[in-house]
Design a protein that fits this description.
Structural class: alpha/beta
Strand order of the largest sheet: 5-4-3-2-1-9-8-7-6
Number of domains: 4
Number of strands: 25
Largest sheet: 9 strands, parallel
Number of helices: 18
Strand content: 15-25%
Radius of gyration: 26 Å
CATH architecture of the largest domain: Alpha-Beta Barrel
Helix content: 25-40%
Oligomer: single chain
CATH superfamily of the largest domain: Glycosidases
CATH topology of the largest domain: TIM Barrel
Length: about 675
């Protein structure tokens, strides 16, 4: 048997050419006579791939010794005949009733000791050997049957790990936690040292005495909570790995994935992405949020970054309204198209939706679909068909990448540690600290990658650290090497506070970055809710610090800004040592004043200067062709000017000439192509 190609070597996520288009398809919810109509309409809409089987466990395995694959066989053949590829799920996200009733111990237990019941989804303990064995058995049965089917394009393990259950506190989870701790620390002495159990008489004589951090009379050991977060991410990852091993054995060469949920706190997506062949995201920006597109851009940049810039897939989004917010606004005409193009502009090689046909029953019956309840007479269907045709015109974008010279450091362990209890301020939360930094770059059309600690920084002129509360010694050396080599480094407040065990670094903050940054933090001064502290820059501009300030002393750094009011008046607020800057305050949306100067010094410019509300991104194919995406998220027409080498390119969406100066309507987009430059 010839060796199967490594799916990670593909320039695009699957063997299906062009940009993927489609959505979740749940034929088990419909009479079989509807399937032929679905396949015909998929072809009409330009659908190239559908996700099948996500919640089909009960249909595929009606009982412990019963299997029913006939319906899925017929569906596979029908889709193949209509040229629609299949992203086949392993169906393990929701165990069937017969398995739960036979083994109620697999149901998850909360920190308060409440066992959750059957009747929703993801009702299982991640550490349950019964669940894991049943999931592997199901995966094996599916893989043995469909590994060679010509319609199979992608394996989809489980669905949205951690969406409903990220942790379980049952005895089985406790035993698994102890095994995890034994592997991490070698024994109880290592655990006692790491957890600082000399505090509050928490010393353990044996690992068998350790339990999960269930509800307790008062604050729980913070290192125990941090390790619990690590363990819970790893426990779910172990479930994924068990199924992945079966697919690698029985279906080599077919890429494997699971769907992420954007910037999701509970799971360390750096570790997870390393186990995937292609990164997939489920994204549901809120049409009621005027800044939703900025947050979406941030999430998409993360998805692109998780595998070093490789193309990713938007595996789920809503065609219009969702069904689970308090108020579910639909997407006004043009918004679905604009937001879908945004994903492509930021590295997606596929735009998929939840779901194909709107459900008639169940918790998501009011969730929008590519084929709405009204059918082909609906506005939604017309947009479905139109966008499918437009994606076909963009087929040659597939495989193109984005080049960024600015990186943002994201460390899940630091995120978890930052948001533990009993800190100087509960307002210091990772996403609240990150968003203003990212938004400042977004508004300036600066391309951004996210990087994990220890990543290769050689291609980045600017490295931004909005916060690294948890800072390992090796991470500090990594950042210092970037600054010592002439790279620009900007570190936000409350950084370098603790080590990997959540123990405070000795000698003052920011711990092992003190020498690199040339500062010492003497004391934290959180800002009360609703208040602000003025910050005056060296050139006389007045800014406002909110949430957080610090009593900062310089060793060999120069102040770039000082506090202008309050008890810290006159003290340094923003400092610089060489190419390294430190902010002893949270500037919120005004962080752009600092970052703009850094970008200018580093020679990092915009993809293209554009008016407010317009997003400009660039993707480059392996042969050097470039695609410029211009998206108007604003409420008003935007006047744009193109450089001469872009002005002659027609809009790839419409074929119309654009010219050097043109007006882009609200919610409209233009995609231009520039041929490879001679070498």
């Amino acid at each position: 048997m010839p060796e199967a190609p490594d799916p990670r070597s593909r320039p695009t996520p699957t063997r299906v050419p062009g940009l993927l288009y489609g959505g979740d398809y749940n034929p088990e919810q419909w009479p079989e006579e509807v399937w032929a109509e679905d396949a015909r309409l998929m072809r009409q809409a330009g659908v190239t791939m559908v996700t099948v089987g996500v919640f089909a466990w009960a249909r595929l395995q009606p009982g412990p010794r019963e299997w029913d694959f006939g319906w899925l066989d017929r569906l596979f053949d029908l889709l193949a005949a209509h040229g629609v590829a299949v992203d086949l799920a392993t169906a393990t996200a929701s165990p069937p009733a017969w398995l739960v009733r036979a083994h109620p111990e697999l149901l998850p237990v909360t920190a308060d000791g409440v066992r959750l019941e059957f009747g929703s989804r993801q009702h299982y303990c991640p550490s349950s050997p019964v669940y894991r064995a049943a999931a592997v058995r199901l995966t094996r049965a599916i893989a043995e049957r469909y590994a060679g089917h010509p319609a199979l394009a992608l394996w989809h393990i489980h669905n949205e790990y951690g969406d409903h259950v990220t942790e379980c506190f049952c005895p089985e989870s406790a035993a698994d936690f102890r095994r995890w701790l034994a592997e991490r620390y070698g024994g109880v002495d290592g655990l006692n040292a790491a957890w600082g159990t000399g505090f509050w008489s928490q010393h353990y004589g044996h690992l068998d005495e350790v339990e999960p951090p269930r509800t307790a009379p008062g604050p729980v050991n913070p290192t125990q909570l941090l390790d619990w977060r690590r363990f819970c991410s790893d426990a779910l990852l172990a479930c994924y790995r068990a199924e992945r091993a079966v697919l690698d054995e029985l279906s080599p060469g077919v890429p494997v994935t699971t769907n992420f949920m954007s910037m999701f706190k509970a799971l360390d997506y750096w570790r997870w992405a390393a186990e995937e062949d292609v990164v997939c995201d489920d994204a549901y920006p809120d049409p009621a949020d005027p800044q939703a597109h900025v947050t979406a851009a941030m999430h998409y940049d993360l998805m692109r970054s998780l595998k070093g810039g490789a193309p990713w897939l938007l595996l789920e989004q809503a065609p219009s309204a969702v069904s689970w917010r308090a108020v579910n606004l639909p997407k006004r005409p043009g918004l679905q198209r604009l937001w879908s193009l945004q994903a492509v502009a930021r590295g997606a090689d596929g735009v998929m939706y939840f779901q194909w046909r709107a459900s008639r029953a169940g918790a998501e019956k009011f969730h929008s679909a590519l084929l709405p309840h009204r059918g082909t007479d609906s506005r939604g269907w017309r947009e479905t068909v139109r966008f499918g045709a437009e994606l076909r015109r963009l087929a040659s974008v597939a495989g193109a990448r984005t080049r960024a010279e600015t990186a943002v450091v994201l460390d899940w362990e630091s995120w978890w540690a930052l948001e533990l209890d009993d800190h100087p301020s509960a307002r210091m939360r990772w996403l609240d600290l990150l968003r203003p930094w990212y938004a400042a770059l977004y508004r300036r059309s600066v391309a951004v990658d996210f990087v994990r600690p220890g990543a290769d920084l050689s291609g980045y002129r600017v490295v931004l650290v909005p916060n690294l509360y948890l800072l390992r010694e090796e991470t500090a050396r990594w950042l210092a090497a970037h600054a010592d080599g002439g790279g620009h480094l900007v570190c936000g407040p409350f950084t370098g506070i603790v080590d990997e065990h959540d123990h405070v670094h000795p000698g003052g903050h920011p711990g092992p970055l003190r020498e690199t940054l040339g500062v010492v933090v003497d004391e934290f001064w959180p800002v009360p809710d609703g208040e602000g502290t003025t910050v005056v820059t060296a050139d006389g501009r007045t800014l406002t610090a909110r949430l957080w300030t610090e009593w900062l002393e310089t060793t060999d750094a120069e102040p770039l800004a000082r506090f202008g009011s309050g008890p810290l008046a006159g003290r340094p607020a923003v400092t610089r040592r060489g190419t390294a800057r430190y902010l002893g305050c949270h500037l919120g949306d005004e962080i752009g004043v600092v970052l703009e100067q850094v970008l200018a010094e580093a020679g990092v410019g915009p993809v293209l200067p554009v008016p407010e509300g317009v997003e400009a991104t660039l993707r480059t194919t392996p042969d050097g062709a470039e695609y410029l995406f211009l998206l108007n998220h604003g409420e008003r027409p935007a006047r744009l000017t193109l450089p001469p080498d872009w002005a002659t390119a027609p809009d790839r969406l419409t074929g119309a000439a654009v010219g050097s100066r043109f007006t882009l309507a609200p919610l409209d987009a233009v995609v231009l192509r520039r041929s490879p430059r001679p070498r």
